[in-house]
Amino acid sequence: MTTEWIEGSTLEQLVQRGAIPLKEAVNYASQALSALVYVHANGVVHRNLTPSCAMIAEQRKLKLGEFELAKKYADQQLTLTGTTIGAPEYASPEQVKAETRLDERSDIYSMGVILFELATGWKPFSAKGQFEIMRAHVEQERPAPHDLNSLLSHELSNVILRALAKNPSERFQSAINFRTALQEAPTTHPQKPSQPRGGTLDPSPPAEGMTPRQPTPEVQTAGSSAASIAVKPIQPAASADPPKVTTPSQMRPVKPRNKANTSWFRALQNLLWP
């Protein structure tokens, strides 16, 4: 038996190198779900989905592998009762309970765990031992992804939480439904438009009886550090009658004082103040 040789890295290796952008993580999860659509359509359950199963080849194309534990729906009775299937960190609650009949919804749960890790950088459940991890999948409440990554939209967080439902009937019932909801959900929060400094401008005309505000004169700095303000000079108000100007020829001549009239005053002044 031979398999295809693929040059690239696994999702597990990409996660170990650092955080994966959200849009890229959603793209990888969508491609993995497309592969599961084909697998489930042929009556096969993967039963061992982990980030190491997904190989990223050239042009970011994902290829799903590691089908060693895959089984057809009709062949799962060959599995011994009480045998746990799959990696504990990505196992569905029904896998932890060692149920002999697993369907496609078990793979959907495992894909939810993978997407949770890609979107937040954390696994939904972590503990020191495998038994504690398996028990958390069955009993512990799953954390909200947007609490671990504030950039994650609530819509995408709810998609991941639905895939991680404890009860299989509350999850997506097919990989197609999971992929559709994933592609329709916004990845991050929409950015609110920023308001301009100094408040908003109201282009509406002023109300009746109100004087519109005059615009501030513009400051022009044409290639120099000094600014010049172009202001229209104020014109003086027009007068009905022009001001009268008296010329020197029209002025009344001043009569010189008569020295005789002032002689008695000088005599009196000499008597009082010798």
Can you put this structure into words, describing what you see?
The chain is mostly helical. It has a domain at 9-184: Transferase(Phosphotransferase), domain 1 (Orthogonal Bundle). 34% of the residues lie in helices and 6% in strands. The protein has 9 helices and 7 strands, in the order E-H-H-E-E-E-E-H-H-H-H-H-H-E-E-H. The strands form 3 sheets. It has a 3-stranded antiparallel β-sheet with strand order 1-3-4. A two-stranded antiparallel sheet has the order 2-5. A two-stranded antiparallel sheet has the order 6-7. The longest helix has 20 residues, at 22-41.
Summarize this entry quickly:
With 274 residues, the protein is mainly α. It has helices at 11-17, 22-41, 93-96, 104-120, 130-139, 145-148, 154-163, 175-184, 263-272, and strands at residues 9-10, 44-45, 54-56, 62-64, 71-72, 219-220, 228-229.
Characteristics of this structure?
three-stranded antiparallel beta sheet; mainly alpha; 274 residues; two-stranded antiparallel ribbon; Transferase(Phosphotransferase), domain 1; rod-shaped
Helix-strand blueprint:
Layout lengths: L8 E2 H7 L4 H20 L2 E2 L8 E3 L5 E3 L6 E2 L20 H4 L7 H17 L9 H10 L5 H4 L5 H10 L11 H10 L34 E2 L7 E2 L33 H10 L2
Antiparallel strand pairs: 1-3, 2-5, 3-4, 6-7
Helix pairs in contact: 2-4, 2-8, 4-7
